[in-house]
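Following up on my earlier message about fe (ii) ion. Here are the inputs again, as you asked, copied directly from the submission form:
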Amino acid sequence: MAIDIRWDKRFEVGHLRIDSEHQVFLDLIRSVSLASEAEEPKPWCMRLLNEVRKYADFHFLSEENIMLRCGFPEYPEHQQKHAELLALLDERIHAYATDRINLEAVVVFMFDWFAMHTTKMDKKIGKYIDGLEE
Ligand SMILES: [Fe+2]
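Thanks, got it. Here's what our run produced:
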């Protein structure tokens, strides 16, 4: 049973740039999910995973710059979490590339990670910036 990957209001962080990057990111995960359901060839699926990996890297840098620019106090922990997530993602992609897990397992990992990280950690950035503007 494939998981339903679509944007939901609960993912909103309340920061225009972060939210728009998150929407692109979720869309990339959705593409991998659809490729998994359609059982598309592995080299193509690897290209899609590579796209997710590169976007995650870009997005984390972008989010870290936003945190630094506004003096977000929890930057060190958040940056550390990003590094851990990238390492985990690399590990899962490698496991798929070497036939140790299937693509659906990578999709579930990416979606859980996305849902958890945006609703818990990233929301704090939006709240902090809102507080600065009051
Ligand atoms: Fe984040």
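One observation from looking it over: The radius of gyration is 15 Å. Hope that helps, and feel free to reply on this thread.
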